[in-house]
Amino acid sequence: MAFGWIDEQAELRRRAGLVRTLRPRPAESPLLDLASNDYLGLARHSEVTEGAARASRTWGGGATGSRLVTGTTQLHAELERELADFCGFEAALVLSSGYAANLAAVTALAPHGSLIVSDAGNHASLIDGCRLARGTTQVVPHSEPEAVRKALHTHEGTAVVVSDTVFSVDGDAAPLAEYAEACRERGAGLLVDDAHGLGVLGAGGRGAAQAAGLAGADDVVVTVTLSKSLGSQGGAVLGPARVIEHLVNTARTFIFDTGLAPASAGAALAALRLLCREPERAARAGAVARELHARLTAAGLEAVRPDAAVVSVRAPSPEKAVRWAAECRAAGLAVGCFRPPSVPDGISRLRLTARADLSEAEIERAVRVIGETRP
User: Fold this and answer.
1) Could you tell me if 223 and 193 are in contact, meaning their C-beta atoms sit under 8 angstroms apart?
2) Which of 84, 239, 259, 294 could form a Cys-Cys staple with 63, CB 3.0–4.6 A?
3) Residues in a beta bridge with 351
4) In 3-state terms, what secondary structure has residue 313?
5) How far is CA 103 from CA 93, 116, 218, 219, 332, in A?
6) CB count, 10 Å around CB of 22?
């Protein structure tokens, strides 16, 4: 029977406690949300939603085509200019998602004969980019600059080191300065995904590369998502103008994909301008994360110290992690639940998002619920 093997795979997932299901949420929810990636609390901000509405009224509901045909509007160009300026890079290229941005950057910057050195903790989009690229990938242990250095010394030609800036599972930051030093010893490029750093790290939320003194460097390329701190949808690649021009001409997820919807571009631009006016939002997100970590560990829970806005709490098993998250939801708290294969080390976790708009009372409530429902 066609696709008969799917039933066997489904049964294996069920036995392992790894079944995933979609859960549509209502427009208004009584749950305290620590599961989304709305780090700065901007997804429902009136200026951001009005930016989306105004863009739709002006440009229509969709981009109408690929960016190279009809899908580039003046709004896209405006967003690219302001995003590049904000983060300290020469140029930017907006794509339909952060996933597409990572696929574009990795595949376009790792041609045949090149070496890709990939951190073992990287996000699935970077991993998929490595799989699709024509270069050879060498995976190195998580956050170990010396391992990166040794890998680069095995190759004489073109090379690029690929890493998250803040890893999505535990919320720990990559040693970017050390990675950059290793790259420069061998003339390699550094490509980093700042999905969880933009809006939280750096001066006023300008990102992890800016915080590490790497923004604008001619050997550094950064990808970002517009769907986390900026509360919208889409992704972008930031870097030297010649790199961005190269992506326009070679990156398949840019060339053959419909452009980002005007509403998303308008929302992201409004959020970016709001962050420029209110840089304290970035500091607040980090402060909330540290407060959550301190209270959770004080309550006897095993939480990983956050470097940005992701707070990870270890769970005993996949099944108990699912049950724990469900009991939190029943008690009015939405949390993320990370299980294999989403976690590279096989350890299941609750994943909490520290939002800049959380009150002290909400932080206290979240910690109380997590503690009372622990397995």
Assistant:
1) yes
2) 259
3) 312, 336
4) strand
5) 13, 13, 20, 19, 37
6) 4
Closest CA to 132 of 256, 251, 258, 255: 251
- Edge-to-edge order in the sheet of strand 189-193: 91-95, 235-239, 220-225, 189-193, 159-164, 115-119, 136-140
Residue 59 DSSP label: H
Residue 339 backbone dihedrals phi, psi, to 5 degrees? -135, 165
Residue 107 per-residue DSSP state: H
248, 254 in Cβ contact below 8 A? yes
Q: What percent of the chain has pLDDT over 70?
A: 100
| pLDDT < 50 regions, the chain | none
**Structure tokens given for 339:** 């299980």
CA distance readout (Å), 26 to 23, 29, 46, 212: 10, 6, 19, 40
Phi, psi of 228 (to 5 degrees): -110, -95
Counting Cα atoms < 13 Å in the Cβ hemisphere of 29 gives 17
Q: Alpha-carbon distance 166 to 198, whole Å? A: 10
CA distances from 243 to 33, 95, 220, 351 (A): 38, 15, 10, 35
Q: Give the position of tokens 């951190």.
A: 119
Distance, CA of 312 to CA of 33 (rounded, Å): 15
Residues 6+ positions from 77 with CB-CB distance below 8 Å: none
Q: Is the pTM of this model over 0.85?
A: yes
Report the interhelical angle of 46-59 vs 74-87 (nearest 10°): 140
Query: What burial class does residue 120 get, using C-beta atoms within 10 Å of its C-beta: 0-12 exposed, 13-18 middle, 19+ buried?
Result: middle
Give the C-alpha separation, 308 to 300, whole Å.
Answer: 22
Q: Residue 165: what pLDDT?
A: 98
